[in-house]
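Run folding on both entries below.
>entry_1
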Amino acid sequence: MTKTTAVDIVARHVAQTSYSDLSPLTITRARQVVLDYIGTMLGGYQTPLGQLAADYAAQLQPGSQATIVGDKRRSTVEGAAFANATMGKFLGMDDSHRTAGHVASQLVPVALALGESLRLTGEQVITALAVGYDVMHMIDQEVDKWQRERGLDHKGQQGTLAAAITAAKAMNLPQDKIGHALALAMDMACGTEQYVWDAGACDTKDLLAGYGARNGINAAIMAEFGFRGPPGALDGPYGYFHAFGPGYDPACLDALKHEALANTGFKPHAGCRHVHSCVDATQALMSAHEVDLDAVQSIEVDTYLEAITPEFRVNYTPQTVGQAGFSLPVTTSIVLTRGSWFREDIDAYDDPSALRLRKLVKVGLDEAIQAEHPIKNGCEVRIHTQDGAQLTGRVEYAKGEPENMLSDAEFEAKFRYLVGEMLPEEQIGAILAGCARLEQLDDVGALTHLTVPQKALAQVS
């Protein structure tokens, strides 16, 4: 009798999942995550790295299968997914799942590129995204702590496996080939977080999302073609959980419950998610008090352990914008002086007024928040003034977490901020309307067509 492997169980879950299995909240989150990531892609396209990624896909992976978002050129599905994932990650404003991290940057480009190429409906795309989130959550919760201690990156690692699942589901592969897609992706998983130490001197923070999306599609295409992956790719002696984690626990498969996408969060600010509760707490303090910055004597920032370690998260002397985006002292000082934490704010990290305040920041651990992390990811900011007053701002959940979700108006405002003047109002309105009824779309390719500036509007139906 053939042994049932973890790959078999995952493949069965994916193959048997249908749109009718998904909760209303999962469908709502799918609409939001597609709109949100289209926005981050359009914002990222307007940066030098976004242009480089688009040029790479158009010139070195030319094709007619899928749209390079924001660009009049097209590429293969692998090329478009790579470029779109890379450009969408650059601004650091993609979604952030409390156990699986940044998932949209790998899965949404896969679903949209294959959705356009295969003329998939909105329901099919939502289902493909949901199972990809399921698998990434299941794997990541088992290996995250082990991998972080060793500097492995979840986007290129678990993201590759989850992208293969989303691709296989989008391609409507049978159960055995879904298993082979997952197993083949195991040997394509890659990526470290060395970029956090070399931030500003490399592009890999964003390229890893592109690798995950591209390699996931490649694994699914290879499985469809007939290539096989190892049956023990997850639970075998040298399988993923042993090679890239602490070992295999069969109980991890209990997490395959169609709930992961429903529990994702979103980023209203730029930079690392671990500084966002500090942004929110600082903004809450400023809303509650009139702050005379010249009278500030000291600033205390207390939050959870993962937000203050390793030491690059408490970096008082960042040398690049990339390093500044991870630093809590920089975050606090910039929000106090500028009020917000977008890319242009991080660019001003060495502004003299902020630099003075940065030196006054002391970072510490909040035991109460730590006790409930990762469910809670809060922060408390306290300002002590020269006249002895203490001003406090505190949040229990960063804005955008499931318990502190963005409103529809806030999602739209973020989208419009990211797009800027790149698209005419007619196209912006059409994308917003299309995402708002994503499950009703007959062909999701109409959405990606709308991201190209000045393109004649297709009827989104």
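>entry_2
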Amino acid sequence: MSQTTITLLFLAFAIIMFILEKIPLALTATIVAIGLNLTGVLGSSDTFAGYVNSNVILCVGMFVVGQALFETGMANKIGSIVTKFAKSERILIVAIMVIVGVMSGFLSNTGTAAVLIPVVCGIADESGYSRGKLLMPLVFAAALGGNLSIIGAPGNLMGIEAMQNLGMETGFFEYIAVGGPMLVLGIVYFAIIGYKFLPDTKGEGQADAQKDYSDVPQWKQITSLVVLIVVIIAMIFEDQIGIALQVTACVGAIFLVLTGVISEKAALQSIDLKVVLLFGGSLALAKALETTGAGTLIADTIVGALGANPNPIILLLVIFVVGCALTNFMSNTATTALMVPIAVSLAQSLGADPRSMIIATVISCSCAYATPIGMPANTMVVGLGGYKFNDYVKAGLPLILVSFVICMVLLPILYPFFP
């Protein structure tokens, strides 16, 4: 059996397991990586290179920096301050989406949603507002905000890794030219149109009790916020100050632990090994798709199905549609891991600049709005918001359409296929 065939079989295995989730996602990625090694497709260095990849280190550092904001209650305080000024249900939706969108651009999407869900439930219960009108915009804003920076979601770093491997320069706000307009129009959509598609429900039960942060010293809260801001600024001006993103994240994390803002135990617990293992394993698969020519074969098959000399716009459309379809039924990160190397191969088969294809892939794989299982935050609010499956379809599909239009219009302009 050829190495190309073996790689394609492991790819098929990964797709099926990622969709079914009969075994943990991280374990699936690890099985794929080890399997590619045992079958001789990859050597040991290529198999394990992804696990100590510089972007994995960046992810680990930001887990700790972000957790400090949650651990000290600062994230909770920020959310409470913003929502307090909303005078109507629609204004509250806008306020919630703004704060969640901005926070999730620099912190964990799921973590940001988890912190603010009980806050919003409490506001809804006390004011008489509908939970059904408030919680879905909250979790969708978390996904939209993840497209503001390269640390907004684990999948973002996979796109950055692909571009860096192709010798392209990348920046901290690599996705914001598309992600920013998506967040803004997403907020406008819910304030004007999407609001009508949200169910007027009170939800079931009570949200988890909010943790009492009254015993946390104020200096810890302030320090956690200051360190996050400094880290973000340092990342933005990476080239000017000469310190790599990964080093900045690690320095911030170390400082927070040394000063006692976050304990060593909490810092270690904040590191999501599932993401690390999924990232490392998926990079091994991406390497195999590249070295064996399997990625090129898939790309050639798709290109061939589209006829001779297909328009790059059509390929961009296909990438976006496939990414959206998959990500609503499987892990966003897993979908990104599968689609990025294929997108690169598709672009290269046309001799086109792959940047727009890669960004379209990352963006499309974050558009998990149409199902309650599209992302963890969606699932968190099913009961609390009293949602049914169709509620996500009604409110989420138009939001996907908005994201699709933005990508199809902006990407060819911002990142020409043939510069």
